[in-house]
Specification:
- With 478 residues, the protein is α+β, with helices and mostly antiparallel strands.
- The strands form 3 sheets. Strands 2-1-4-5 form a 4-stranded mixed beta sheet, with no helix packed on it.
- Helix 2 packs across helix 4 and helix 12 runs antiparallel to helix 13.
Length: 478
């Protein structure tokens, strides 16, 4: 709902005036890690005297002497080459913000937020987004308005946000704290920056405030019987006809304008999914087509092409050959990256399975990244072969280690295979199944190579190849 509450919520401030509440918030901040704010205090430094620090913070809150500091502004690169501003609060500010979020969020989750809003919400992540998209596509809502709000986090008007927050909250102390966080400003290159709009990306409370603000849009769309899915400031609208999607577009423009925001024209478009593809939150959806053998309609959903390059870059950063680590340490470096990426891809499968439980069949082909998964596994092994050679590691030496440090070797030392993790989760294939499959695949490849050599009148195991195999056994790896 987005109507003003007749009985607004009181007594949130009292909920955070307990050591246990601050300690819980501190553990969450600590788990999220993050860089220091303008005071330079790191998570590690705060942790050394966390008991003393939390009690001192509690006293400040009880006496209402707590004042937020300006955020430290930094810029992080975006995929399009531009930079996104990030505001990093101090550790203390993050703890207080987290404590307030812990008090407020359950209320908004239970009574205010719409079920099709999925970003920055517990139990409503990417799987839920994909579930909603696929359900609408399957049910014939194939006219899609793909919308993005221009500089959303930097342009939320403070006064309008404050008015919306006050529709639900009557705790004056919490309202003042939120206002002070909004007005705390930034420090950049020694200069203080102040603005009348925006919530700092990097602030713990910013996602909650963003959802409260765009909740206005969610319910106006819902009351107009417009299907949608929203992930933070990115959202899709769905309709069965071009006329209906145009009406939805006009309503959206009006609401966004009333909220004091602007739609990013270059990132916004209407898509006819019967003929056109679209991208959303890291996935590509390829339009309906028909199978050649029986004419059955289907569409394709897969990770975006840029996702694979991002995967490689993350592995590359984790496997610098200038570092000297044990084999176990190298595996521990890359495994979380592999699991994280593959679990993200598996959301497509999870979404289709969840929809089936609600009686929504799937015409989606999502297991279309067979080659990409094998390629990424090969890339990871090549990077590790070089990184694990401690004495003068080179690409040439790494290639020479193919036979000694083969697929089975890496599996035995605990390296997660992207290919096996992806298909194993879906079909129950074990690591032993994977090794056997790759061995058979390797044997077929060898037979083809021998046959090609024979057809050319050559000997496959020639002097050059035998010498390479012998040299590999002499390479010192430590």
């Amino acid at each position: 709902m987005n109507q003003e509450l007749k009985l607004k919520w009181h007594s949130f401030y009292g909920q955070i005036l307990k050591y246990e509440k601050l300690e819980t918030a501190w553990k969450q901040v600590k788990a999220n890690k993050g860089a220091p704010g303008i005071d330079g205090e790191t998570i590690k430094e705060y942790d050394r005297h966390s008991y003393k620090n939390l009690h001192a913070l509690l006293e400040k809150l009880k006496k209402k002497e707590y004042l937020p500091s300006p955020a430290r502004r930094v810029y992080i690169p975006k995929k399009n080459g531009k930079k996104r501003p990030l505001g990093i609060p101090t550790v203390e500010d993050r703890i207080v913000q987290q404590a307030v979020v812990n008090a407020l969020q359950p209320k908004f989750e239970a009574h205010i937020f719409h079920k099709w809003s999925c970003g920055y919400r517990p139990n409503r992540g990417m799987e839920r987004v994909l579930q909603i998209i696929m359900a609408n596509i399957e049910q014939g809502y194939n006219y899609i308005y793909d919308c993005d709000i221009k500089g959303f986090f930097d342009n939320i008007p403070h006064k309008k946000l404050d008015r919306i927050v006050r529709k639900y909250i009557a705790d004056g102390t919490v309202l003042k704290m939120i206002w002070k966080w909004l007005k705390a400003g930034y420090m950049e290159d020694g200069n203080y920056l102040h603005g009348d709009s925006g919530t700092p990306q990097g602030g713990v409370i910013s996602p909650l405030l963003a959802n409260i603000y765009l909740n206005e849009l969610d319910w106006i769309l819902s009351k107009a019987n417009i299907r949608f899915v929203r992930y933070a400031d990115d959202f899709l609208l769905f309709a069965k006809t071009e006329e209906d999607i145009k009406k939805a577009e006009m309503l959206t423009h009006k609401v966004i304008e009333n909220l004091g925001l602007e739609i990013s024209i270059e990132k916004t478009k209407v898509v006819n999914f019967n003929e056109e593809d679209f991208d959303f939150v890291g996935y590509t959806f390829e339009h309906w087509r028909k199978r050649k053998r029986d004419g059955k309609p289907y569409y394709i959903a897969k990770p975006k092409e840029t996702v694979w390059e991002d995967f490689r870059q993350k592995i590359k950063r984790k496997t610098r050959k200038t570092h000297t680590k044990s084999q176990d340490e190298w595996v521990k470096e890359v495994n979380p990256v592999i699991r994280g990426k593959i679990n993200h891809y598996l959301n497509l499968w999870k979404a289709t399975e969840a929809n089936k439980q609600f009686g929504i069949p799937s015409s989606c082909y999502f297991n279309v990244c067979y080659k990409e998964l094998l390629a990424i596994d090969g890339y990871i092994r090549r990077r590790l072969r070089v990184a694990m050679i401690h004495r003068n590691p080179t690409q040439r030496k790494g290639m020479a280690m193919n036979l000694r440090w083969n697929i089975e070797f890496f599996t035995k030392i605990g390296l997660v295979s992207a290919f096996q993790h992806y298909y194993g989760k879906q079909f129950g294939h074990t690591i032993e199944d994977y090794i056997e499959y790759m061995k058979n695949k390797g044997k077929k490849k060898l037979r083809r190579a021998k046959k090609r050599a024979e057809e050319k009148g050559e000997v496959y195991y020639n002097e050059y190849r035998l010498r390479k195999m012998k040299n590999a056994s002499t390479i010192k790896t430590s």
